[in-house]
Amino acid sequence: MTAETTNIFGIRAIIEAIESGSSINKIYLQKGLRGELFYELNKLIKAKNLTTSMVPVEKLDRLSKNSNHQGAVAQISPVEFHDLEELIEKVIESEKTPLFLLLDQLSDVRNFGAIIRTAECTGVHGIIIQKNGSAPVNAETIKTSAGAAFKIPICKVDHLKDAIFLLKAYDIKTIAATEKTDTSVYNVNLNQPMAIILGSEHRGVNPSILKMVDFKAQLPLLGDIASLNVSVACGVFLYEAVRQRMYISQ
Questions:
Q1: How many Cβ atoms sit within 10 Å of the Cβ of residue 112?
Q2: What is the residue extent of each domain of the chain?
Q3: What backbone torsions phi and psi does residue 37 show, to the nearest 5 degrees?
Q4: CB contact at 8 A, 141 and 236
Q5: Residue 146: which of 14, 2, 7, 6 has the closest Cα?
Q6: 201-248, pLDDT tens digit by residue?
Q7: DSSP reduced 3-state for 142
Q8: Of 63, 77, 109, 211, which one is least surrounded by beta carbons within 10 A?
Q9: What crossing angle do the helices spanning 230-243 and 109-121 adopt, rounded to 10°?
Q10: Residues 79 and 112 sit within 8 Å (Cβ to Cβ)
Q11: Eight-state DSSP code of residue 131
Q12: pLDDT tens profile 26-75
């Protein structure tokens, strides 16, 4: 990302940013703000000796572009992107079973933020996105992720095909979430080095990517709607991986 500062908003997201060691330039707080979560934030601000300014709600509305700021906006340095190969090697050296997430040109920042949050909760070691055509890691993404964007490595690659080739070189299998298969995710072994690929909101995983993957899997849909929201589908895939790794392997 560029060296410009980014505004993030929401008390919990700002707390997560501070606790993760992010560089905070300044925090704007609404005059008269009260509440348990605010006191937790204020305690951190004092402990870290961070610069704050008490401002009217109108200024916070402008800084957050009228989003739900909860009375707090922070100017931070941007999220740092990680080198994919270095991250893969670090995970392998830790002797953990790798679990990565690849997002094929996901465009909605709220979906992106929700996916980041779920990925952090399920122990994903890194999220891989494409440099062009992907949802940005902006204030709305960070807010929706509840600060998880500061806790999980995010890698940018020129093309997802490059990432898949690299993952294969390290014997990490790839599985695409797609309705273009009869195989259920519940019949795929996710308790092995694995990278899960999710497609965009409108077209799913690119056909050229589908040709490269080791597995394709779908979720059973028992109603009349033909597809799930991508962030929901992501949660089901990731928690199936958690289930297999925590319980089936024992």
A1: 28
A2: 6-76, 84-248
A3: -65, -35
A4: no
A5: 14
A6: 888 999 999 999 999 999 998 888 878 899 999 999 999 999 999 987
A7: helix
A8: 211
A9: 10
A10: no
A11: S
A12: 899 999 888 899 999 999 999 988 889 999 999 999 888 877 899 999 98
Q: Residue written as tokens 């080095």?
A: 193
The superfamily (CATH) of domain 6-76 is Ribosomal protein L30/S12 (3.30.1330.30)
Helices 36-48 and 11-19, packing angle to 10 deg: 30
Phi and psi of 26, rounded to 5°?
-165, 145
Tokens found for residue 181:
């298969």
Q: How far is the C-alpha of 109 from the C-alpha of 90, rounded, in Å?
A: 28
Encoded tokens for 101: 């997430």
59: which 2 tokens? 């200024």
Hey, what amino acid is at 172? Answer: I
How far apart CA 43 and CA 52 sit, in angstroms, is 12
For the domain spanning 84-248, the CATH number is 3.40.1280.10
